[in-house]
Amino acid sequence: MPLQIYIADWVLPVVAPPIRRGAVVVNNEVILDVGPADRIIKQYSGEQIDFEHAVIAPSWINAHTHLELSYLRGKVPAGKSFVDWIRAVVNLRAQTSDPEKIIRSAREQSEFMVNTGTVLAGDITNGYLLSDTLLDPRLNRTVFYELLGFRPQEAEEILTQALAKIRKERSPAIPVPHAPYSASAELITQIARLNRKPQSIHAAESADEREFLEKGQGAFVEFLKFRGVWFDAWQPPGVSPIQYLDRLGYLQPMTLLVHGVQVSKKDLEIIAR
């Protein structure tokens, strides 16, 4: 098979500056060279495919998505606070118990992702989408099976059941805790000891989360009590979400910190380490 030379007005190598009127040389699906079209054409002989007014770029990677929640698109109102928004999501999920609708919407969204350039996703599931066969087969997924459980005495059972479900469905899913405000220290620690990589956790998402962990007060206390999952003996760790996860041993190489917008200089130093 002859070399293919793909040419476009712009080529984005990502690891180097954009190339105006660039080209990519491919041999048997392996990229051999990237550079200005003039140089590439002089240096290589092969089939030239000119996309003209287009951009050639690497395929997209969506590091964090919830395909399982695709059926809620356009239905979740903006909240006055982060906790208000979570309440809205929880309430809407409680109103839908149709697995076929959830899976159908997720598959449609997976098809949309692939058709618009995404080839790999870090996808969160709460159990409906443990199997890749339910979605567009062209989409590569790292599946994170997200676990919730604020009461420490329930941690072992929650993780045991999750691992059993993963084995039963022959899923490549990796069990992960949802967030520091929804998973007990025991659950986070037990998952960390599994040493599955990569791993994920929602962390440092809001000021409410910081207040909860640093002071043991705020909107999350009321929310957990409202949900009926509060643990009376719980004591706040008295540190930021990042410092808390570091203390629990969850910050390891290939840990994906989702959102992470409420961080201090010390937090950033911990993450960089």
TrEMBL record:
Transit peptide found in the keyword field: no
SUPFAM superfamilies in UniProt: Composite domain of metallo-dependent hydrolases, Metallo-dependent hydrolases
Ranges of residues in domain Amidohydrolase-related: 56-271
Classification via InterPro entries: Amidohydro-rel (IPR006680), Metal-dep_hydrolase_composite (IPR011059), Metal_Hydrolase (IPR032466), MTA/SAH_deaminase (IPR050287)
Keywords carried by this UniProt record: Hydrolase
Domain of life: Bacteria
GO terms, molecular function: hydrolase activity, acting on carbon-nitrogen (but not peptide) bonds
A Pfam short name: Amidohydro_1
PANTHER family registered for this protein in UniProt: AMIDOHYDROLASE-RELATED DOMAIN-CONTAINING PROTEIN, AMINOHYDROLASE SSNA-RELATED
Record-given protein name: Amidohydrolase-related domain-containing protein
Organism: Caldithrix abyssi
Organism lineage string: Bacteria, Pseudomonadati, Calditrichota, Calditrichia, Calditrichales
